Amino acid sequence: MTDAPLMTIRDLGVTFASRSRQFVAISGVSFDLEAGTVLGLVGESGSGKSMTALAILGLVPPQGAVTGSIRLDGIEVVGADKSTLRSVRGGVAAMIFQNPGAALNPYFTIGGQLTEIVMRHRRVGRAAARAILVGAFGDTRLADPELALERYPHQFSGGQLQRIVIATALACNPKLLIADEPTTALDVTVQAQIVDTLRELARSRGLGILFITHDLGLVGALCDRVAVMYAGRIVETGRVQDFLEGPQHPYSERLLAAVPRFGGPGRLATIPGQVPDASVARKGCAFQPRCQYAMPVCATQSPPVLRSANGAVVACHFPRNGASAGADRTGGTS
Amino acid sequence: MTALLTVEGLTKVYATPRGDLTALDDVSFSVDRGEAVAIVGESGCGKSTLALSIVRLVAATRGRISFDGLPASQFQHVSPRRLALLVGMVFQNPYASLNPRMRVLDSISEPLRIIARRPRNVAREQAAALLGSVGFGPETFHRFPHELSGGQRQRVAIARALALNPGLLVLDEPTAALDVSVQAQVLNLLADMRATHNLSYLLISHNLATVEHVADRVIVMYLGTIVESGPVEQVFARPRHPYTRALLEAVPRPRMGAQHGLARLPGEPTSAIDRPPGCPFAPRCAYRTGTCDSVPPVLTAGADGRQLACHHPLNKAFEP
Which of A44, A176, B167, B180 has its CA 20 to 30 A from that of A231? Predict the structure, then answer.
């Protein structure tokens, strides 16, 4: 694409400090998201995926210090004032969560609690807001969209509620949808329907989707690009196909090998050791203690950020597939 | 092999304000000694009700369960203490299934003391050995659950389920709450424990790739009934029930590519309160005919160890 990406994140860091310790939630996070594409943000619990999402919406808890830059549709989010953030949230970027039931108030009908959100963001009257919601419900393939407004959350299944939440997010016409594990609580057949709906929305509306997940199967089935996080840093970004066929970072390689797959080996590969403690300052590569290819330099020096021929970016001293130390170094992280 | 667990005609009806909800409708199957059987299906298909009725956390409406030579008439009256010695259970959420106020070692030695009536020091020794066998060093024995990661907690839960040396472990979605690398550790542990303890597993799961890893035989359920069963490799390679095939098609696979549509199965399961008079899957089935709407298909065993309940079985290989 010729014009600027929908979202550009550069050197994003979030640090929480107490009197005695410093907790680095994320640091040096850089990636772009183009309109109309789906970027999978992958990593284990505690790797910083959700903190990255919160930073995009300016929702990092006040004790956290945010550094770096997030440019979203021309707006700088880091350090933005309250009124700018209010227009970003819901208007430019919307977020959906794992448990749609928890996002809705059980005491109010769907129409009763969602109409005002649309009235406020779209600056329309009640009747127009209801019409927008009904249209959005139809776009997410919810059955009987008109009736849905009069019903309560408990009268819907998990898959239907997730459609309602996605529709509400889209009713405010955002350019970016952040989806934090939106299908984890759903059955596999319903997950398949939601995944198809999200992909259709990205294509038809030019919506950019940041899809947070730890399911690499879903990354393959839905995403165009992938960013892998480990211990608060992005270790690899690239096109999904390249990533699946030739992961660059040793962590990505181990992660892919750990996925149980049909007709796969009887014994699954595991990653020995544990994710490091984010409150302990470290030198060198965070994955080094668990890495089978680690050399002495990995323990002392931060890994360089390398670019491979196919455009994958990897932060590693010894990348696995192609990206070599001779390739050009890119900025962003140090 | 001999059957360890035999379930015959198990039925569970919940009375609700909107009418009777049939969670399980005349379910029969068996698990052989040393065999791992998986039960798969969507939410509401009855798989958890089935698991819970075996450990008697749910009282079945009808049906017979016999276990390890105990006829159903005796097994149903077995004391809770004795039941705990026969069947172990691992739950989905290791954050909720461990007592937050008990240290890891105590969580495991408690059943040994109270149910197996071991002296305190013997119970602690056995608990320590069990924790060692699931990969814990002595430094973790005195930790509390909140000091452990999700994968570690699930390993503690597995060690605790094994403490009383049961013949059967009921595993209700044991890795659903875990990260992929940790899930791999737990699945490998389950395979090791089964080999060393000559255990049988009844695995409840909706993750078909996990099922393929753990189980020998798979039972596919829909709306409280078994629609297909058989050896895992055969059922997954040549599913005969349209529902089994739809489940397999819906699994996202890393190498499938984003151009590929995932969903082939429209809608969601019918409510178990208004069950269709014919085949329960008919309203969503692409092969539905008039017969399917009126005549419930009967689960029939073939010569190849497979069972099927369908009027229009498929006969082609499944290639993802």
Answer: A176
